[in-house]
Amino acid sequence: MHIRKVALVAFAALTVFATMASSRTRAPRSVNGILMSDVHFDPLADKSLVPQLIQADISQWDKILQASAHKGFSAYDTDSNYALMTSAFAQAGARASHGIMIYTGDLLRHDFSEAFESVGGSQAQYADFATKTAVFTVRKMQQAAKVPVIIALGNNDSTEGDYVLTPDSPFLAALAKEIAVVEYSQDAAVRIDFAHGGYYALQNPTVSDQYLVVLNTVFWSTRYKAPAGLAEDPGTGELKWLEEKLSEAKSQTRHVSLVMHIPPGMDAFVSAKNKKPQLMWKEAYEDAFLALIAQYRDTITVSFAGHTHMDDFRILPDAGSTPLFPIRITPAVSPLFHNNPAFSVFTYNPNQGDINDITTFFVPLSDKRPTWKREYKFASTYGYHTYNAADLFSLAQKIRTDAKAFQNYQKLYDVSSKPYPITVTPRNWPYYSCAQTSFTADAYAGCVADNSRNAAAPGDGH
Hints:
Blueprint: H1 2-22, E1 31-36, H2 50-55, H3 61-66, H4 82-95, E2 98-103, H5 112-118, H6 123-145, E3 149-151, H7 170-178, H8 180-183, H9 188-197, E4 200-203, E5 210-214, H10 234-251, E6 255-259, H11 268-274, H12 283-295, E7 300-305, E8 312-317, E9 323-329, E10 342-348, E11 355-362, E12 373-377, H13 378-382, H14 389-399, H15 403-413, H16 429-434, H17 441-452
Parallel strand pairs: 1-2, 2-3, 5-6, 6-7, 7-9
Antiparallel strand pairs: 1-10, 4-5, 8-9, 10-11, 11-12
């Protein structure tokens, strides 16, 4: 009953906002949506509670977790505990205004299976416990948001291991019944697609002529481990599905926003570490995706991703390097990589879906009494008053040449974590900057080489 009540509340909100979007004369000029990613909830943070959590129904988890002696937020280099997760959800929900919430993946903590067994859980209990954790996290998110929540899956969102997910799994079936926009969609294909592969497409509840196409880019990752015995490669099947959805949107003159966890392009961290280009996706999938993007360049307007845990962006170009559409990479709630926890509010036009500005809120864990506060507004920090491909392409070039733009990017990348920079340094910065505009190994290597001729960062003798 509790699960159904939560879902019905979320679905009621969905219906209200869909009605709002369909009435252009009554729609506000702009609405506030929420961008959040990589919560990585860790129910094992207080290991003394684990035996109770294993035995309890999910409806009892709040009471159990609230009894923890650990009341403070997670420390750097750990995943999100109950206090941090629920605080982030509450803060985000308080700032949503007639918009939607987009969550770009990774509900579950890192190394979950190993950690579960290390605190007394058994391998036989793990799949059920991990599923309960994912359902609980989704439920808390939807309760706090009070607006429609669009959820993509990440590489940790599985009971089978990191980068391992079997289509038509019990895990997918359980989440299909919990995510309100999936369970209560009027289009049965939404439920079928999600339960099969963790991807789905639906009308934006707040923008009448826009589709949200939610991808499962784990299938395209260079690290995806396909379970033995699959009759069809799930990555190939998803590409075919994506082409069908883009074709359908184009025929109906609808715009598309893509939602995903792992973005296309380069893994800047690994590339910088190894001094060698490393793609996020397998090359065949990346090539096929880029070809689709070029074919439907007038249909896709923006994309949202996560995965890196950092605050970043990318601009997908066509073959002639003309910027097509931006990818917003939302920073993580989890502070595992010494980043500060964060989420963003994006202000957008409910008629066309155009993004006007993005404001990021964070909690500086190094403070004596960490509290949520505003970190920065994109427009006032960088001087661009739209979040589109042309402006972001211009900003990417500016970061490579202008001292102030570079310093802002360097500071904000890991969410003002101190001491910073944790990753973007005066020596390796081209690996991160070039990942914003280069989507093939050759183009990336050339960009890095061009910008590495002077080892100093912009404004530091550059």
